[in-house]
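Hi R.,

Here's the chain you asked about this morning:
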Amino acid sequence: MATISKNEFGTYRAQVRRIGLSPLTKSFKTRQDAESWARMIESELDRGIFVNRTEAERITFSELIERYINEVSITKKGHRSEKTRLLNLQKVFGHFRILQIQSKHIASYRDARIKAGRAPSTVLNELSLISQVFDTAIKEWSIPIPSNPCNLIKKPRTDNGRTRRISSEEESALICTCKLTRSPLLASLVVVAIETGMRLGELLSLTWGNVDLNKRITFLSTTKNGSSRSVPLSSRAIESLRSLPRRIDSNRVFWTWVNSDSVDDVWRRVCKKANLEDLHFHDLRHEATSRLFEKGFSLMEVASITGHKTLQMLQRYTHLRPESLLEKLG
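And the predicted structure, written out as tokens:
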């Protein structure tokens, strides 16, 4: 039976009691709202579909993000960058209680980010991260959230494929500029990236124990897609690796940088000094993939070197120069 009482602050307190359950209590501004809530709870109890949402009503999105960072993000390879993105989202949605967040709030955030000039792919990644937090809370932590608000909004259209190729002149300028920096490893990092197609994270985690300079092979035990692979090393890559200074206290090949984010600043400075516009470090992987095809490697051979799992992904990373096709046409 439900009881409605008015307290000293002028609000109405509704309480529903049932044998075997702790009392269910909630306060409202009006008696009508209190009675409506009580009827709804009693109806759900009668039909056996009641879900106690007290926990969900109490938890803020800020608390949800903190738990996600400590329990989920920390297990991922890119946890540092993900933590930064989560903390930025916390600034926007952190004050909300999780049941207050509706699809309209997510949609408004999406529109504001795009209006501010953020790339659709960036906004999509942010929405995906919000969605992951909600899904984890619902599925893994059994927090009674009725639905994931991100599932109800339109996602921004993205075209993540880049067609940026680096010319021989640009490559020379880039490497020369790298050699002028304070880092003795930067030029070699660029050369090995172009010669192997390895991701920046793979290069930074590379250890000398996994590099066989005599057999000209390097072994990657863990990669972004979770599979290991062996990458053949060209003569140029071997020469560049042999020239690297080594540290006594570290077995890492490119020991200067801890993670991918730590390369960002020096990369921007080098590109600006070399007058290279719109060049991302990841474009070097695109360049390497395209060059392998231009050298005549087969689809399977290129995939085994780069680690691409699908033809669709391999196509996104391949942009052949028309000149190379003309040579084959004759």
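The chain is about 50% helix and 10% strand.

Let me know if you need anything else.
M.
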